[in-house]
Every structure is written in C-alpha cells, then in structure tokens.
Amino acid sequence: MTIHRPAAIPRSLTRRAAVGAGVLAIAAITACGSGSGSAGGSGDVKLALTAYSTPAEAYKELIPAFQETPAGKGVRFTESYGASGAQSRAVIAGLPTDIVALSLAPDVDKLVKPGLVASDWTEDQYKGFVTDSVVVLVVRKGNPKGIKTWDDLLKPGVQVVTPNPFTSGGAKWNVLGAYGAQLKQGKTEAQAADYLRSLFKNVVSQDKSAREALQTFAAGKGDVLLSYENEAITAQEKDQDVDYVIPDQTILIQNPIAVTTTSKHPEQAEGFVDFLRTEPAQKIFAKHGYRPVLRSALDPTAYPTPPGLFTIDDVGGWDAVNKEIFATDGLLGEIEESLGVTTG
Q1: Is 81 helix (H, G, I), strand (E, B) or coil?
Q2: Mean pLDDT of 35-45
Q3: Contact 113, 83 (CB under 8 A)
Q4: Which CATH code, of 3.20.20.30, 3.40.47.10, 3.30.420.10, 3.40.190.10, is assigned to 18-131+254-297?
Q5: Stretch (H or E) spanning 292
C-alpha cells in the first residue's frame, strides 16, 4: 500500500481551478487551435477527437505539441469529452469523429461491428493502447479515516464515491479493481462477488463519468473516491486537498485509441496517433498522471508497480466480465437493482 500526497507528485499545473473547469460535456465540441501553415495541403484539415472524460488536460497540451511537428502543421482539432460508454454510443449514433480515445477496449470494439473502426485496431506493438493507469483510493488530505486497503472501504460509516458502471468506463475499472483484489488475496469468485455487494452498500454517489465523480468528491461528498491514478494526480495539480492510496492489489488500466474508418483525413489522424506514442508525447501524458505505454518514457520512481498488480485477463477477460458482472442481468445489475440505481 502506498500513500501519495501532492508534494510527492510531479506538478505540471500551478494555477488554482475548480475541478473539471473547461471540461466539455459529452456532446459539446470546441475548436482547439490551428497550425500557422500547412504541409502537403493539410491547412484545410480538421480532425475530430472523441475521448473519455479524464484526459482533457493532457490533450490541451498534446494537440499544440503535435501542431508544432511537420505531421501536425496546419491541422486543427475539435474535441469532445464524456463518459466512455456514452461517447462510444454517440459515435455509433453519428457523432463525426476521426479519432476515438476511450477508457476501455470494449468501448472501441463496439465501433467495429458497425464498421466505424477497423477490426484489426489492436494489431500494433501497443495492442491499440495509448496510456496505462491503475485504480487508486482517493482520500481526504491526511487520510482522516485511515483508509489503506480494500477492506477499509467496508467499515461502517465509510462513504464511497464511484461512477455508475453502466455509463462510465472508469467505474468498470474500479469494480474490477475491487473484485480482482479479492481474487488476488486468494478469495473465491463467490467471496469477491459478496465483497462488491457489501462495497456498494457504502456507495453514496454514482455519477455518469469519472470526471463527474471527481467533481462530486471535490465538492465534499464521501470519504473515499475510487478512481484512476491520473484523476487523483489531476486533483492534486488543481490544489484539491486530497491524498491517494495505491492498494497492494489493483488492476492495470489500459486506455485504447483508434482512427475511425469514416475519417476524411486518415493520414493526419494516424499521424496524430503515432505522435501520441512518441517519447515527448508520452512524457506529456506522464506529466498529467498517466503511465506511459512507451517504456522509455516511464519513470518507475514516479509510477511504482504495485506488488499485486493484475490485468483484465486475470479476472477472466472483457467478454466474461461484461456478461457475468456488467450485464443488466449480471452481478452489477443485481446490485444496482437492489439499491434502486438505474442501469439504463
């Protein structure tokens, strides 16, 4: 178990700002700068980036950095941020998109069947991923409730904040982090399921996205927030009075990216994705709390590997957990129904 406080975290922002300021709602799209020139006629190129809710700050720095490169000269962007599952559905419904950057692979896989993303989107050296993270326990400054382990979340009076797993990719990672941690400790699947039932009895808020959950926690609700490590770091960068605990057992979060088959500018879109996996871009991601997929950009002192780190494969893989845990007639559907929480 590792407790992190602001002084131990590399800071890339010094301004005070309310959490979530400037972050766009799911359907809101804003223009983001433009290059001063063009390369190969790219001056008329505008790319639409559709992303999950949390990496907005990183892309505000990454896009101008790309525009300074030969491949990005003259390329302009629009950006849309929201809950990962909702963003995937918006693209299916017709939201114009050149690049999807979502929370988890199944949200990109949903775009393959309607032909919006190529079926081989994972067939590169990064398996389709652009960043990593881990599930952490975000606590109030000084950790007044003494929250150190997953078991501490079940204590009477501990109020937990996490997004709704039926809308948020981050929430699914949180659930799998909690569930898989039980298996990692040698418990049975039945015991892990019982843990989730007990955990959700202590949940006091389920927002649509990870960013909205962070806003709720920052506003004072709850004792602990289940979240991405990068969101905890974002909160600290924005001078929120929080610490965070990396449990000994936690899941490796892998965030995918893909170019859509409907892009009118696939060469420039692919160029942007390629840029995001370069060392300079990966270091920008790292500055904003993400663990780089490019090993040379990863600082193990800033991002230590938890001793009990596990992956989605260790809990059965996405096909299995989506059917057994996240389906409306699965474990989480049962839990949410018992609590009167919507799964629609």
Answers
A1: strand
A2: 48
A3: no
A4: 3.40.190.10
A5: strand 291-292
